[in-house]
Amino acid sequence: MISRYIIAAATLAVATIATPAFAQTGDLPDWVLPVKKRFADNEKEALAEEFVGVRTEEGLQSGLYTIEATGISTELIMQAAQVFLDTLTPAQRIRTQFAVDADEWRKWSNVDNGIYVRQGTSLKEMDEAQRAAAMPLLE
């Protein structure tokens, strides 16, 4: 049976932005490695802290997402997520599917600049059928 974390994992996997040329060629400017180290150090420090919620400039935000019955069936999104997951290779599925409390959720970023190691499976890595199966998760 598919669960909520699979739906979220499938949605996580379909986000992507353009990658700069140096990330594609491997020709790194001198400034890249220190920035990559700073990203990695910041990530390690953040993951060492207990997750307590969403924080903004105004502080910790409470009550953003309450868990309650809505009367709306999740059957369609669950079916779409299963169809998407069934199109993935075993390696892609490992990079796409995480437990609800996995660190990957906190490590994910929309940054795709060749500096930050992205989580999940990029649309760029998917074939046409996989991308087509991913799109209903975003509708």
From TrEMBL:
Keyword Transcription among UniProt keywords: no
Pfam family, one: DUF3500
Keywords: Signal
InterPro entries in alphabetical order: DUF3500 (IPR021889)
Keyword Signal on entry: yes
Transmembrane segments annotated in the record for this chain: none
Protein name as annotated: DUF3500 domain-containing protein
Signal peptide: 1-23
